[in-house]
Design goal:
The structure is a homohexamer. The first copy, chain A, has about 300 residues and is of the alpha/beta class. The first copy, chain A, has nine helices and 14 strands. Chain A is globular, with a radius of gyration of 19 Å.
């Protein structure tokens, strides 16, 4: 390596300095799912990013789903996966399988973190009563054991973070009577980010970001203010399965999360690049009141 | 309720007083498995016992296996369970299923604790690098992904206990290269008890205790000193699958665990009765050096 | 002991579980006096109850008087005890004797606790400036060195409780100029319970509880709401020496104590039975605002 | 006040500076008894000295006896005080009175400290199991409930000191069975000083210090090395009731107390003058090994 | 030394007791400058006073200027010192010299404290971003690198005090862009006293205190209430260079400092005498609202 | 920026991950001097490196000299700088100037750190009694106020590091009598690194590293084991002013510092590149006992 390359290296590290400083000690919730879970190399990249965040002083929390893996197992035992409005219709047997698959994916992510030398602990919404839920009835329809979060008890997360662990959370929760439910991962991540007072919530998705035209990857919006997002929903630009995701983003901003990022999980190290370089990536959801004095954070 | 009954009640509580006092702040590891896992009511009783231990000042750690449930799922996907010397022969697919089943059983136990109002967190040996293992080769035989524990990193357990959680552990661990392995539950419990400096290790089994004659339940030994136990193995009285279990007991005593108890998990509240009443139950394994001045602890 | 008896035992311990849980870490002030102080066996029972409360996680504070013992000594040195409205008329010599007797009773109770293996420290209202008093003048009458509490400095109690001691308090306090005074024990206990934010205040008395008819033990009121208590005073049902006691109860509820219990100190383990069993005993004084949604706590 | 007087003042304070510095944070045990307990003004001076020690950063512990007051009360109830070798022969009734009197003297000293604005807590050897004793049998003679200390549990003292209280201790302790005993105050103070690792132990006595000739106050020894003290006992110069006192001093030095001082309690502020001025007062008992490089500490 | 002298000594120490008590744990800022910096013996006396304050439980902070020493060095390199309204006109070279001289004076004071056995750390307003300034423009006149404090970041002071150090501060600060400035010492001391919540601010000056007639040392005002001070400024009694000093005093009182003292730094131990004796010295600036119930503090 | 560049960025950050991990929480002492102090841009680079080390979890301590600046000022006041064996001959006036210059350089470095948003505090060896020295007499020659370190009191460093400050130290210390001395910066840095238990000690020099032939920059030794270093000194390969520097390195390794690095301070970011990239730079001094199992740390 020659001198010039070395300087480039040094400068990239130095470029990261103000970001490390700005976010030092802040909580960042990373929702990890979709394609990024299928490709073993991407899986590694995401956990590397999270590990680096941890090592330089952030307090990352990972929330993940089970993605295609649940459907694979459901089919294996002879059940046909059914979805309603993007939510998995969940009978007792499907719930059992979902719990099993999510638990194993969780263990795998925890182990990747440990292999990278950072301490992680995998938990569900049941541990320490993290997520209390009630039955979710979209359009009054019964879709089985699908729950929406009504209360977040952050003690277990705070204790783990305080003790230098990365919590890795899978979205199963119980209601007041102890019945367990499957929870949509995006929703769980948003509720957790709000409850722990996260500075940032990052969604790794299978799109480059929020698109004006779902068919056109180049139509991505870099900065999306919450009131503009509301307008886009009202205008039907944001539609279908994108609506609940954006709703989670908007709610999180209103509840005090400073920035929500919708990033392309298919690109390696998209989290790292968003956090540590001057040029962000994907879409940043921002509170309308920041419009005037916007700066990258 | 009349006066006499009330006094009986009070006296039972008062009888527990010296035991609460003696063990206050002590760690007790409860290995939970076998039949006690099948009967829903027994499952509740065990977790009630553990919850009470926690509430009166003990620091319980639960270690559990998956029992019959793993075999049920293995068969479900078309594999015939094979055992060698009491250890499950574990190919990649079996390991995957074991992880899934154990994860779900774990979640269920955690939830029972939470329903009883005590905080619990479920972890595997992978979380916080709790259990490092190496491939186990009984009689130089390859039985697949079965590991024996070579190192216990107690940080995650200590942090959870310190933060008032009951750790509930399932026995999956990884080797130095990150390959995961199934671990025999009795072995994992013993290694954990030794590493955390437990005062007591309790095995819930499907027998009344250690029997002189496996066919005769009345042949139970109440107190078994470690050197007598060695003699019984040498004499062939203890034989077959009982040998590794007793070996775990002896090793734990030598490593500083004060008492190991082999209790009948099929009886309700056997843990509670052992700990809080003057009359113990099952077999207590005791260091030979205590023979002279033995007292119930 | 047969199996059935063992289960009974276990079930009684399990029955205590929700109460241990509910009150864990809560302060409970036990005013100990009257007949319970004369009978050596009752004395032991009370301290056993307090010790058990401590061991399972409560934070008990004991307040006691000297009862008959002060009168015995006063007479011994040739003084005739005089009372006015239930308060001991206290000249200098009587005060000296009261201090001596209370100090010794205090030492005795502390030692009983220590014999039971729990740490206790005996203090008066003078230690750490716990109780500041002013001369009490019932009906403008001078009854000597009898004081009423004007300020409670809880530092010494909090430090002792924090360091795992049971504070055992006898009711002597000093005024701003350093003159010491005898204090009515019920009053001292109430003031302390209010100042430390106790969850419960328990009076051990020589009656079964609050009676509609003082002559009829069966006329006991199980739950007495504060506004009903006020009415009973206004109606003359509660009268004489009972009035100041009930006044202490009502004041304590208004100041935030959740429950005040008037129990029969002549029955063994009445405190234990009240706290740890579903059926309470004696009279519970309860805030009127709880009437609608009353539950046993 | 003119300039010169002001400078004198300032210089006296400045003279105290190195002593404050040297002893900052050190424990000093002051045994208070004899004539200093009879004169109200002396009593105030001693507690003023102790209060000042506390305020400038020392950690004082006061141990006191009951002196003449116990005999006065014993006589009052018709018992003739009897002593054997300087120890009070103590039957059950005498013990009761001793406890009562000591408790009240204790309360009085605590209150003096509080009046001076420093926090104090009075305890006996029973509180927190401070002093465990066994029956003392001088020359195999039974002198009743007189105990010698066999174990010191310093927890209560350390907790009180840590929480900024001055512990004021009266010498009653219990044996393993819970029987209480009277303890010689000098002995109790020495055992406490040794157990808490005191830097200094100060005895306030009715003599100017250790005298070569008990009849001649001018024969006081300023510095007495432990081996010289042994010699003086062997030679019979130190004799009678002085022997146990000097024995306590020697034992304390051997157990690590840096200096023991025998001061004249009849002189006002003798403690203060010893500690804060270049010229000490009374007799300093010093370890023989310090002979070569002796310096005032 | 005879008995009477010893008692005098003891009484002076005892006289200090209530003051030690009253101010224990309070922060006191001592601005040290003027003649007291020239005389080596006075320098020692001031640091002895500060050391004693520290040892008896105060938390002193020293702020100092460089006085005549800066002018001496400025002349040495051929610059003629210029002042405007009592502020040093400061070009780049003068600033460099001021920093050098202040740094060295600082080191010297720190060392004096260390020689007296108390820990001190010297800092400027740059360390830990203690003092943020902006260019000061008296009467819109540019006088170079002279700054006025706009923000005080007390972290470094609090950490040092917490860790038992005496912070010794010299008044150089930087603006938002990192340009360093010279700061008037009286102003810096006042801003620091206000920001850390000091109980007292002491100015050591070259006058006996605040004088009604600057020419007449006997015209000193002992207690000066803030509204009276305002009136004296309005009436022209306080004038010239005295105005900003008194303004600092008044501002500090308004910002919560309890007392500001203007003392004669030329008298030895003036700080000590003010703090520890019943008769204060110099002028005490007091909030008008204390007029009615004034007492020496 | 295109995708490839972005990945390069991410990979460089990820490459730093294991180094961040390995050294997290470790102390690293950086001796800063020579040419790196003259060039304003290099000065910035060094402090940027130190700031980044701090932000990612290291605990850096900076030690610096005054370099050419002292000579410049000495000449300015008419003194001719004299050196003996690389040590500055230091009369009283030279010492005064050295203190002034070092103090100001110190302030400047502290401010650079603060501008980068990390907290720093500048101290000398006098603060908190950090460095106790005695007069250094090379070859029995008197070279004035030049001291060698005899004791390091690490309290002030540990407290500052604990409170999240970067200590920036300049090498002035005092002897037992309070006389201050100039100290060689390399020596001071080595003594500090040893006393605080540093993991690494980094010397920024005006050479590429340790050279076999001082005239040939390409003769640099990458890894120099301590016994080889001793041999090179014995063989005369390392000679002259290089000997004391290498001696400091060897001593530090023997005292437990894991690695000493001699880096080229004239290259930008040489500290960063050494720490965070796989290819180190300059010379690493390594304990001989590591020869067999050497790995880059």
């Amino acid at each position: 390596m020659n001198l010039e390359e070395e300087l480039t290296k040094a400068n990239i590290l130095i470029e990261a300095l103000p970001y490390i400083q700005r976010f030092h000690g802040n909580i960042i919730v990373v929702k990890y799912g979709g394609s990024a879970m299928k490709d073993e190399s991407l899986k590694n990249h995401v956990m590397e990013d999270v590990a680096l965040l941890k090592l330089v002083g952030f307090k990352p929390i990972v929330v993940h789903g089970g993605g295609k893996e649940i459907s694979r197992w459901v089919k294996k035992v002879g059940i046909e996966p059914v979805f309603y409005n993007g939510l998995r219709v969940t009978d007792a047997e499907t719930l059992e399988i979902a719990e099993m698959v999510l638990g194993r994916v969780n263990e795998e992510l925890v182990q990747k973190a440990q292999s990278l030398g950072v301490n992680a602990v995998g938990i569900s919404g049941v541990d320490g009563n993290l997520l209390t839920v009630r039955k979710q009835m979209p359009d009054q329809k019964d879709i089985g054991f699908v729950g929406e979060v009504t209360k977040v008890n952050t003690k277990v997360l705070k204790d783990l973070v305080e003790n230098d662990f990365i919590p890795v959370v899978f979205p199963i929760g119980a209601d007041e009577k102890g019945q367990r439910y499957n929870i949509n991962g995006d929703h769980a991540a948003a509720m957790i980010a709000q409850a722990v007072g996260a500075q940032k919530l990052v969604y790794l998705t299978d799109t480059p970001g929020v698109l004006m035209d779902p068919e056109d990857p180049d139509s991505m919006i870099s900065e999306l203010y919450t009131n503009d997002a509301e307008q886009l929903i009202a205008d039907g630009v944001i539609s279908g399965g994108m609506i609940p995701k954006i709703r989670n983003c908007i709610d999180s901003i209103h509840a005090g999360v400073r920035r929500v990022h919708v990033l392309d999980g298919r690109l390696p190290h998209s989290v790292l690049l968003e956090i540590f370089t001057d040029r962000g990536s994907g879409t940043a959801i921002i509170g309308s009141e920041e419009k005037r004095y916007y700066q990258k954070v």
